[in-house]
Write a structure and sequence with these properties.
46% of the residues lie in helices and 12% in strands. It is an alpha/beta fold. The chain is elongated and about 75 Å long.
Length: 302
């Protein structure tokens, strides 16, 4: 796969996967670098496999997001990682700098929001591939957008397109927004509707298609409902909760996010500078992976 391909890495998801998957590694100076190492390995793997025309990485901005403003308990149950993990985030940004790869973050937003904006503002003719270990990005999948999903660690990969989403979840990518809005998303501490789990949410969406259609149906007299009255009443009682959940879960087109695919075009990097960085952190084995690229591929990168 070459040229008209845009790879977008979800940095928080990749770093977390690497952090949990790899044993503790330390640099020659005694710095913990397992997340950085996994991030580096995956970055080189992506470059080798796809030879993209465009390549970028999105980060979370430290501090509250707009979601915390509308729901103060958003992600409140998340357990903080040791400081050794967070110390590797600026190192991953430095790695991207030496590879001349553009990265993005913006106050008040998450990496997912930046990914969505980049995806939505990139011309359809360019194939977008989102690299992540988080299913939140599945809602962005369409005919020209796929997800390179880290199923386990950084080595077990599955490519998700529209058909793969349909096969696994029984829904379209867009319906996954409504699916999570109905059943809740415990990983982000977003509550669901009482009495609605995965099975019921799936049944409702297969029957009605969208949350909006469900509530249109519930405008009918109760004796005309095609769902149990108790479930219908729960949905009506908790409508505000459903609307809130959808606002938290849906990745919208947001022109306030300043991210432009044109700034993500792959640029030549200085091999000596890259070697110096990799050697500093004890990643000498990765140097050979760069040097072993076929010459026709090296011309794009070096």
């Amino acid at each position: 796969m070459t040229n008209n391909t845009f790879i977008i890495l979800d940095a928080p998801a990749v770093l977390h996967r690497a952090w949990h998957a790899l044993p503790k590694l330390t640099s020659p100076k005694g710095i913990t670098v397992n997340a950085l190492y996994g991030f580096s390995v995956l970055l080189l793997k992506i470059i080798r496999e796809f030879q993209p025309e465009y390549l970028t990485c999105a980060f979370d901005y430290p501090g509250p997001t707009f979601r915390h403003k509308i729901y103060k308990d958003y992600k409140a149950t998340r357990i903080p990682q040791p400081q050794e993990f967070y110390d590797q985030i600026p190192l991953s940004k430095k790695l991207l700098d030496v590879f001349k790869i553009k990265s993005w973050e913006q106050k008040g937003y998450e990496a997912d929001d930046i990914i969505a904006q980049l995806k939505n503002s990139t011309p359809p003719k360019i194939l977008k591939i989102i690299v992540t270990g988080d299913t939140d990005s599945f809602q962005l999948i369409d005919k020209q957008t796929k997800v390179y999903f880290l199923k386990r660690g950084i080595n077990k990969i599955q490519i998700y397109d529209e058909n793969a989403v349909k096969e696994q979840f029984g829904l379209t990518p867009k319906q996954l927004i409504d699916f999570k809005s109905l059943k809740g998303d415990p990983s982000d501490n977003i509550p669901g509707i009482p009495g609605i789990g995965e099975k019921t949410a799936l049944q409702l969406l297969k029957k009605f298609g969208t949350i909006e259609n469900i509530y249109e149906h519930l405008k009918l007299p109760e004796n005309s409902w095609q769902i149990k009255p108790s479930l219908g009443k729960s949905l009506l009682k908790n409508k505000e909760k459903v609307v809130l959940a959808k606002n938290l879960i849906e990745l919208k087109n947001n022109k306030k996010i300043k991210a432009d695919y044109k700034e993500c075009q792959v640029k030549p990097f200085d091999l000596k500078e890259v070697k110096k960085f990799l050697e500093e952190f004890g990643f000498k084995s990765l140097i050979s992976k760069i040097e072993s690229l076929p010459k026709k591929k090296q011309s794009k990168l070096l």
